[in-house]
Protein backbone atom coordinates (compact mmCIF):
# COMPACT_ATOMS: atom_id res chain seq x y z
CA UNK A 1 0.00 0.00 0.00
CA UNK A 2 1.45 3.36 -1.00
CA UNK A 3 1.77 6.00 1.71
CA UNK A 4 0.15 9.37 1.07
CA UNK A 5 2.01 12.63 1.42
CA UNK A 6 -0.29 13.47 4.34
CA UNK A 7 0.66 10.24 6.13
CA UNK A 8 4.35 10.77 5.41
CA UNK A 9 4.17 14.28 6.85
CA UNK A 10 2.53 12.96 10.01
CA UNK A 11 5.20 10.29 10.42
CA UNK A 12 7.89 12.93 10.05
CA UNK A 13 6.17 15.15 12.60
CA UNK A 14 5.94 12.35 15.16
CA UNK A 15 9.63 11.49 14.74
CA UNK A 16 10.85 15.02 15.51
CA UNK A 17 12.75 15.49 18.75
CA UNK A 18 10.75 18.62 19.66
CA UNK A 19 7.41 20.13 18.65
CA UNK A 20 5.54 23.41 18.66
CA UNK A 21 1.84 23.84 19.41
CA UNK A 22 1.07 25.17 15.94
CA UNK A 23 2.26 21.85 14.48
CA UNK A 24 -0.34 19.72 16.27
CA UNK A 25 -3.09 20.43 13.72
CA UNK A 26 -5.40 17.43 13.31
CA UNK A 27 -3.79 15.49 16.14
CA UNK A 28 -5.41 17.08 19.21
CA UNK A 29 -6.74 14.20 21.34
CA UNK A 30 -10.25 13.84 22.71
CA UNK A 31 -9.98 13.74 26.53
CA UNK A 32 -10.73 10.25 27.82
CA UNK A 33 -13.46 11.42 30.21
CA UNK A 34 -15.20 13.30 27.40
CA UNK A 35 -15.06 10.32 25.05
CA UNK A 36 -16.53 8.01 27.68
CA UNK A 37 -19.21 10.58 28.43
CA UNK A 38 -20.23 10.54 24.76
CA UNK A 39 -19.97 6.75 24.84
CA UNK A 40 -22.35 6.58 27.80
CA UNK A 41 -24.88 8.83 26.07
CA UNK A 42 -24.72 7.66 22.45
CA UNK A 43 -22.57 4.51 22.35
CA UNK A 44 -21.36 1.86 22.54
CA UNK A 45 -18.67 2.35 19.90
CA UNK A 46 -16.46 -0.31 18.34
CA UNK A 47 -14.58 1.61 15.63
CA UNK A 48 -12.69 4.93 15.58
CA UNK A 49 -13.04 6.28 12.05
CA UNK A 50 -10.20 8.83 12.13
CA UNK A 51 -7.08 7.90 14.07
CA UNK A 52 -3.35 8.51 13.72
CA UNK A 53 -2.69 5.07 15.20
CA UNK A 54 -1.75 6.47 18.61
CA UNK A 55 -4.91 8.33 19.62
CA UNK A 56 -7.63 5.76 18.84
CA UNK A 57 -10.51 5.55 21.31
CA UNK A 58 -11.93 2.22 20.15
CA UNK A 59 -10.60 -1.36 19.91
CA UNK A 60 -10.69 -1.08 16.13
CA UNK A 61 -9.71 1.97 14.13
CA UNK A 62 -8.70 3.31 10.76
CA UNK A 63 -5.29 4.94 10.62
CA UNK A 64 -4.11 7.76 8.38
CA UNK A 65 -2.55 5.11 6.17
CA UNK A 66 -5.90 3.29 5.87
CA UNK A 67 -7.64 6.54 4.82
CA UNK A 68 -11.16 6.26 6.21
CA UNK A 69 -12.57 7.94 3.10
CA UNK A 70 -11.71 4.83 1.07
CA UNK A 71 -13.11 2.29 3.56
CA UNK A 72 -16.52 0.58 3.67
CA UNK A 73 -17.77 1.72 7.09
CA UNK A 74 -21.13 0.01 6.76
CA UNK A 75 -19.57 -3.39 6.07
CA UNK A 76 -16.93 -3.04 8.77
CA UNK A 77 -19.44 -1.92 11.42
CA UNK A 78 -21.95 -4.68 10.66
CA UNK A 79 -24.73 -2.87 12.53
CA UNK A 80 -22.57 -1.53 15.37
CA UNK A 81 -21.53 2.10 15.96
CA UNK A 82 -18.41 4.14 15.26
CA UNK A 83 -16.96 7.27 16.87
CA UNK A 84 -14.84 10.04 15.41
CA UNK A 85 -13.26 13.36 16.23
CA UNK A 86 -12.60 14.13 12.56
CA UNK A 87 -9.62 16.12 11.23
CA UNK A 88 -10.27 19.75 10.32
CA UNK A 89 -7.30 20.45 8.08
CA UNK A 90 -7.73 21.83 4.58
CA UNK A 91 -8.79 19.30 1.97
CA UNK A 92 -5.93 17.24 0.57
CA UNK A 93 -5.89 14.64 -2.18
CA UNK A 94 -3.63 11.86 -3.44
CA UNK A 95 -4.18 10.65 -7.00
CA UNK A 96 -7.52 12.50 -6.97
CA UNK A 97 -8.65 10.59 -3.86
CA UNK A 98 -9.65 12.76 -0.91
CA UNK A 99 -7.70 12.23 2.30
CA UNK A 100 -8.84 15.16 4.44
CA UNK A 101 -11.31 18.04 4.28
CA UNK A 102 -14.54 18.32 6.25
CA UNK A 103 -16.70 18.66 3.15
CA UNK A 104 -15.21 15.40 1.86
CA UNK A 105 -15.73 13.77 5.25
CA UNK A 106 -19.38 14.87 5.48
CA UNK A 107 -20.06 13.71 1.91
CA UNK A 108 -18.62 10.29 2.78
CA UNK A 109 -20.57 10.30 6.03
CA UNK A 110 -23.92 10.82 4.32
CA UNK A 111 -23.15 8.09 1.80
CA UNK A 112 -22.33 5.61 4.57
CA UNK A 113 -25.27 6.75 6.69
CA UNK A 114 -27.63 6.11 3.79
CA UNK A 115 -26.13 2.62 3.42
CA UNK A 116 -26.98 1.93 7.06
CA UNK A 117 -23.80 2.83 8.97
CA UNK A 118 -24.27 4.33 12.44
CA UNK A 119 -21.67 6.71 13.84
CA UNK A 120 -21.23 9.70 16.12
CA UNK A 121 -18.96 12.72 15.65
CA UNK A 122 -17.54 15.10 18.19
CA UNK A 123 -17.22 18.26 16.09
CA UNK A 124 -16.78 22.00 16.33
CA UNK A 125 -20.12 23.76 16.78
CA UNK A 126 -19.41 25.76 13.64
CA UNK A 127 -22.88 26.17 12.19
CA UNK A 128 -21.77 28.78 9.65
CA UNK A 129 -19.29 26.45 7.96
CA UNK A 130 -20.23 25.00 4.59
CA UNK A 131 -19.52 21.50 5.90
CA UNK A 132 -21.88 21.78 8.89
CA UNK A 133 -23.89 18.49 8.89
CA UNK A 134 -27.42 19.85 8.64
CA UNK A 135 -28.59 16.44 7.46
CA UNK A 136 -27.31 14.59 10.54
CA UNK A 137 -30.09 12.72 12.29
CA UNK A 138 -29.42 14.39 15.63
CA UNK A 139 -27.25 17.28 16.86
CA UNK A 140 -26.49 17.59 20.57
CA UNK A 141 -24.87 20.93 21.43
CA UNK A 142 -22.47 20.87 24.37
CA UNK A 143 -22.85 23.75 26.83
CA UNK A 144 -19.32 24.80 27.83
CA UNK A 145 -16.12 25.00 25.83
CA UNK A 146 -14.11 21.83 25.29
CA UNK A 147 -10.36 21.65 25.83
CA UNK A 148 -8.49 18.95 23.96
CA UNK A 149 -5.31 17.11 24.92
CA UNK A 150 -1.90 17.19 23.28
CA UNK A 151 -0.77 14.00 21.50
CA UNK A 152 1.23 11.57 23.61
CA UNK A 153 4.15 11.89 21.18
CA UNK A 154 4.29 15.69 21.59
CA UNK A 155 7.65 16.88 22.96
CA UNK A 156 7.53 20.63 23.75
CA UNK A 157 10.29 22.62 22.09
CA UNK A 158 10.30 25.14 24.96
CA UNK A 159 8.30 26.23 28.00
CA UNK A 160 5.77 28.09 25.87
CA UNK A 161 4.84 24.84 24.14
CA UNK A 162 4.04 22.85 27.26
CA UNK A 163 0.30 23.45 27.54
CA UNK A 164 -2.66 24.87 25.70
CA UNK A 165 -6.40 24.73 26.28
CA UNK A 166 -7.27 24.47 22.56
CA UNK A 167 -10.82 25.05 23.70
CA UNK A 168 -13.87 25.77 21.56
CA UNK A 169 -17.58 25.13 21.37
CA UNK A 170 -18.48 21.60 20.31
CA UNK A 171 -21.43 19.47 19.34
CA UNK A 172 -22.17 15.78 19.00
CA UNK A 173 -23.53 14.76 15.59
CA UNK A 174 -25.40 11.48 15.32
CA UNK A 175 -25.66 9.76 11.94
CA UNK A 176 -28.20 6.94 12.14
CA UNK A 177 -31.14 6.66 9.75
CA UNK A 178 -33.03 4.57 12.33
CA UNK A 179 -32.94 7.51 14.79
CA UNK A 180 -36.46 8.35 15.96
CA UNK A 181 -35.75 10.94 18.65
CA UNK A 182 -35.62 14.72 18.53
CA UNK A 183 -33.42 16.43 15.97
CA UNK A 184 -31.62 18.70 18.43
CA UNK A 185 -30.71 18.69 22.12
CA UNK A 186 -28.24 20.14 24.63
CA UNK A 187 -25.95 18.60 27.24
CA UNK A 188 -23.69 20.22 29.82
CA UNK A 189 -19.98 19.63 29.39
CA UNK A 190 -19.55 18.92 33.10
CA UNK A 191 -22.27 16.27 32.99
CA UNK A 192 -20.51 14.53 30.08
CA UNK A 193 -17.19 14.65 31.91
CA UNK A 194 -18.77 13.36 35.12
CA UNK A 195 -20.47 10.46 33.37
CA UNK A 196 -17.26 9.71 31.49
CA UNK A 197 -15.23 9.64 34.69
CA UNK A 198 -17.72 7.19 36.18
CA UNK A 199 -17.12 4.93 33.18
CA UNK A 200 -13.34 5.29 33.55
CA UNK A 201 -13.55 4.43 37.25
CA UNK A 202 -15.60 1.34 36.45
CA UNK A 203 -13.08 0.23 33.81
CA UNK A 204 -10.19 0.76 36.23
CA UNK A 205 -11.98 -1.16 38.99
CA UNK A 206 -12.68 -4.08 36.67
CA UNK A 207 -9.04 -4.14 35.53
CA UNK A 208 -7.80 -4.12 39.13
CA UNK A 209 -10.19 -6.92 40.05
CA UNK A 210 -8.96 -9.01 37.12
CA UNK A 211 -5.32 -8.44 38.10
CA UNK A 212 -6.06 -9.49 41.68
CA UNK A 213 -7.86 -12.68 40.59
Automatic annotation (TrEMBL):
It comes from Shewanella cutis. Coiled coil: none annotated. Its EC number is 2.1.1.72. GO terms for biological process: methylation. This is Phage N-6-adenine-methyltransferase. Pfam families: Dam. GO terms for molecular function: site-specific DNA-methyltransferase (adenine-specific) activity. It comes from the Bacteria. Keywords: Methyltransferase, Transferase.
Amino acid sequence: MSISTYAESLRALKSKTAHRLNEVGDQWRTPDALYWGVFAKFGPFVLDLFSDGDNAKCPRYYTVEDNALTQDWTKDLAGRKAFANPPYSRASYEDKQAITGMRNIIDKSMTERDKGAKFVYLIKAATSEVWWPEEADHICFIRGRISFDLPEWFIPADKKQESSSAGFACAIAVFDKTWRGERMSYVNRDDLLRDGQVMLDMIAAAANKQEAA
